[in-house]
Design goal:
647 residues; 7-stranded parallel sheet; 30 strands
C-alpha cells in the first residue's frame, strides 16, 4: 500500500512540475499568440482576424465594414466606448482583444470653438441638426490625463440650443463629444484637439509668510504701481496653502490649475514646469511674469531656464524674507574674500543660464536645489529679475567679515533696483473695500481676541517658530513671559505657519498644561500671518522668537524676544525685554558675583534683561528652571538688589 501511495505522489509531483514548467514557459515564450478580432458593431461586412506574437506591434488595417447613413469614426474596445484607434494606428496585444467599429450619423456633426472672456477661458462644443431624436450629449475636456470639465446634456431645450461650454484654463486639450440617439444608442462621437493660449501669463509660486503677504497685499491694491495687480494671476502657496480661503480669492487671482492646494502640502513643481513649457510651445511669442521667493530660486531654473525659454520671454519678481535672506547671504559670503566667492558663483550661474544645464548640480556654495544663497547673484546677474525684500541692514542682519561687501549687498543692490517693503505700509494703502476682501481671504475674524475683550485686559501675542528651535525651551519662555508681564494681559500663542501645533503633540501638551495651571493662554490660527493681527488689532503687544514681524507693527507693538541678549543689538530700537538661557553659569558668576548675584552651577537658569519702560522699576530677572520661579533685580549703585513689584 505504501509503495502504491509513494508511486502516486511521485506521479502527481511530476505532473504538477510539468504544468508549472509549461505555464512558466508559456508566460515567457515569445511564440505565444493573441488574436485581434473586429466587430462591425451595427455595420455589415467582414474583416479578417489578426494574429499577434507576444510584444509584436502591427498596423491596423483599413476598416472594410459599412453602415448605411453612418461614417466610420474609429475603433473602441467596447460597443459604446470612445474611439481609441484609427485606421493605420500601431497596436500590440497582451491578450485576446476585440475592437468595435464606432459610427457617426452622416447628418450629425460636432464643432469646437474657443471662447475667451476677461479672466476666463472656455471651450464651446456645438452639434448640428439637433432636430434628430437625440437623447443626450456628453462633452468633456482633458488636459493630458486630467479631466478638467465635463457635462451631460439631457434637457430637450438644451439639446436644441446646439452647444455647451466647458470651463478650462490655458493649455492643450483633447475634447471628446458623444451624441446619443434613441434608446441611448451612440449616434456619433468626435475627438478634437484644441490649443488655448494667450500672449501674456502671470504665475505666482510662493512660500513663506512675509513674501506671500507682500505679494498678496500688492495684488489687493488696485492702485499698486509695482506689479500688475489688474490682470489674472495664477497663484500657488507651497506648504502654506491654508493661509488663504481659496473660495474667496479676488477676481485678479486664481489657483494655479496644475498645482491646486492639497491637504498634503506637496510641491507639484514638475507639473507646473511641464505646463509652462506647454504654454511656450503653443506660442513662442508669449511672455511670462513670474512671482516667487528666494527659497525657491530653483523654480526659475525648472520653469524657464531648463525649459529653454529665452530670458526675453520672461521676467521675475523675487520676494525675500529679510531675516531668512540675511541668513543665506551670511552663509554664502561671510568670509575674508567674498568678492572671489561671488565671482565663482556668478561665473557658474551664467554658464548654466547660457546653456550648460548639467552645471546646475555642480554650482558652488549651495548648488543643486540649495539655491537661496544665490539671491544676490541672481539679482545682480539677471536684468529680468527684480528683488523685493524685507529689511536688510549691515548693522542688524547682514553682518559680514568684509564690511565693504556687506555694504554692496545692502546698498549696491538698492541701486540696481532692490526694493524694501513693509507690511504695515502696504496694509495702510488698501481701501476699505480692499481691506475687507483681504481680511476675508486671510480668515481674519473680529472675535479673535474676544477673551481679552471680555476680561477687559490687554493682548500679548507670543510668536512661535520651528519646533526644533522651540523644543526644550518653549515652556520656559511661555512661563517667563506670563510671569514677567503679569495678569493684566491675556496671552495668545501664535505658531509659525510651517509648524502648526496639530503636528506637534508635545507643544499641544505644554499649552494645555499651562492653561490648566491657570494661565490665561490661548492659541491663534497659525495659518494667519502675525503681521495681520498687528495691523487689524493695533493695540496688541508681542513677544517671541526672532522674526521680521517685530518690524511690521508700531513700536508699541514690539515688546520682547527669546534667545537674544540685550547687547546682541537685535531690534534694540524696538524691544524692551530680552530673554535667553544662561549657557555659561561660571562665566555669568564671574561677571555678576561682584554685583551681588551668584547662581548654583548645578541648576539651569534664564536671564531676562530690560530696557525702556520695562526697566523703570527693574533691570534684570533670573528664572530658576527647577523652581519655576523668577527673582527680579534692580541695579542700584553698581549692585543688583532684589525688588518686589505688585502686578
Amino acid at each position: 500500500m505504501r509503495k502504491t501511495f509513494r508511486l502516486f505522489m511521485a506521479i502527481l509531483f511530476v505532473l504538477c512540475f510539468s504544468c508549472l514548467t509549461v505555464a512558466c514557459n508559456d508566460t515567457n515564450n515569445t511564440d505565444v499568440s493573441f488574436t485581434l478580432r473586429f466587430d462591425a458593431n451595427g455595420g455589415i461586412g467582414s474583416m479578417q482576424d489578426l494574429i499577434f506574437k507576444k510584444n509584436e506591434e502591427k498596423t491596423l488595417p483599413v476598416n472594410s465594414f459599412e453602415r448605411a447613413n453612418y461614417s466610420f469614426a474609429g475603433w473602441a474596445t467596447s460597443e459604446n466606448g470612445d474611439a481609441e484607434y484609427s485606421d493605420g494606428d500601431k497596436i500590440s496585444l497582451n491578450s485576446n482583444t476585440t475592437l468595435f467599429a464606432i459610427w457617426t450619423r452622416n447628418n450629425i456633426s460636432a464643432t469646437v470653438t474657443v471662447v475667451q472672456r476677461e479672466n476666463e477661458q472656455s471651450i464651446r462644443v456645438g452639434w448640428s441638426n439637433p432636430s434628430e431624436a437625440l437623447s443626450k450629449i456628453e462633452v468633456s475636456a482633458y488636459h493630458g490625463n486630467d479631466l478638467v470639465d465635463a457635462k451631460t446634456i439631457t434637457n430637450a431645450a438644451d439639446i436644441q440650443a446646439g452647444h455647451s461650454d466647458l470651463n478650462v484654463y490655458w493649455g492643450k486639450y483633447d475634447v471628446k463629444v458623444k451624441i446619443y440617439g434613441e434608446n441611448d444608442n451612440v449616434n456619433a462621437q468626435y475627438n478634437h484637439k484644441v490649443n488655448i493660449s494667450t500672449d501674456s501669463y502671470r504665475i505666482a509660486y510662493m512660500y513663506g509668510t512675509f513674501p506671500v503677504s507682500i505679494f498678496t497685499l500688492q495684488m489687493m491694491d488696485k492702485d499698486n504701481a509695482d506689479i500688475d495687480s489688474v490682470n489674472e494671476t495664477f497663484v500657488h502657496l507651497s506648504g502654506r496653502y491654508k493661509a488663504y480661503d481659496w473660495e474667496k480669492l479676488p477676481p485678479n487671482m486664481k489657483p494655479l490649475p496644475v498645482a491646486l492646494p492639497g491637504t498634503d502640502g506637496t510641491v507639484p513643481h514638475n507639473d507646473t514646469a511641464k505646463w509652462i513649457k506647454e504654454l511656450y510651445e503653443m506660442n513662442n511669442e508669449a511672455h511670462f511674469t513670474f512671482y516667487f521667493n528666494d527659497v525657491y530660486i530653483e523654480m526659475i531654473c525648472s520653469f524657464f531656464i531648463d525649459n529653454d525659454i529665452p530670458v526675453d520671454n520672461w521676467d521675475a519678481i523675487m520676494y525675500s524674507d529679510g531675516v531668512a535672506t540675511a541668513g543665506y547671504i551670511k552663509e554664502a559670503f561671510d568670509c575674508q574674500n567674498p568678492q572671489v566667492k561671488y565671482a565663482e558663483m556668478a561665473t557658474a550661474w551664467n554658464a548654466y543660464v547660457d546653456g550648460n544645464k548639467d552645471n546646475r548640480n555642480e554650482l558652488p556654495y549651495g548648488g543643486g536645489w540649495n539655491l537661496p544663497n544665490y539671491a544676490y547673484v541672481v539679482c545682480n546677474e539677471m536684468s529680468n529679475v527684480k528683488w523685493y525684500t524685507g529689511r536688510l541692514r549691515t548693522t542688524e542682519n547682514v553682518i559680514l567679515q568684509n564690511t565693504e561687501f556687506a555694504n554692496a549687498v545692502v546698498n549696491g543692490s538698492k541701486e540696481k533696483g532692490r526694493k524694501e517693503f513693509y507690511l504695515n505700509n502696504l496694509l495702510a494703502a488698501l481701501s476699505l473695500e480692499e481691506k475687507a476682501t483681504f481680511k476675508s481671504l486671510y480668515h481674519i475674524d473680529e472675535s479673535t481676541f474676544a477673551a481679552a475683550t471680555e476680561a477687559n485686559k490687554k493682548v500679548m501675542m507670543i510668536l512661535g517658530t520651528d519646533w526644533d528651535t522651540e523644543k526644550g525651551s518653549i515652556e520656559d519662555y511661555l512661563r517667563i513671559t506670563m510671569e514677567v508681564y503679569g495678569d493684566e494681559y491675556v496671552y495668545y500663542y501664535k505658531g509659525h505657519p510651517g509648524f502648526p501645533t496639530s503636528s506637534y503633540t508635545e507643544r499641544a501638551e505644554i499649552l494645555n498644561n499651562l492653561t490648566k495651571e491657570g494661565y490665561n493662554l490661548y492659541e491663534l490660527d497659525n495659518s494667519v500671518a502675525a503681521e495681520f493681527f498687528l495691523f487689524f488689532f493695533d493695540d496688541i503687544e508681542m513677544i517671541g522668537y526672532p522674526s521680521t514681524t517685530f518690524e511690521s507693527g508700531l513700536d508699541t507693538n514690539a515688546d520682547g524676544v527669546f534667545g537674544q541678549n540685550i547687547d546682541s543689538g537685535y531690534y534694540s530700537d524696538l524691544l524692551e525685554t530680552y530673554i535667553s538661557k544662561i549657557t555659561d553659569i561660571d562665566g555669568f558668576n564671574t561677571e555678576y558675583s561682584d554685583k551681588n548675584i551668584t547662581l548654583d552651577t548645578q541648576k539651569e537658569y534664564y536671564l531676562i534683561e530690560f530696557q525702556k519702560e520695562m526697566a523703570i522699576d527693574k533691570s534684570i530677572a533670573i528664572y530658576d528652571v527647577t523652581e519655576k520661579s523668577i527673582v527680579l533685580y534692580k541695579l542700584i549703585d553698581g549692585n543688583y538688589q532684589i525688588v518686589t513689584i505688585n502686578q
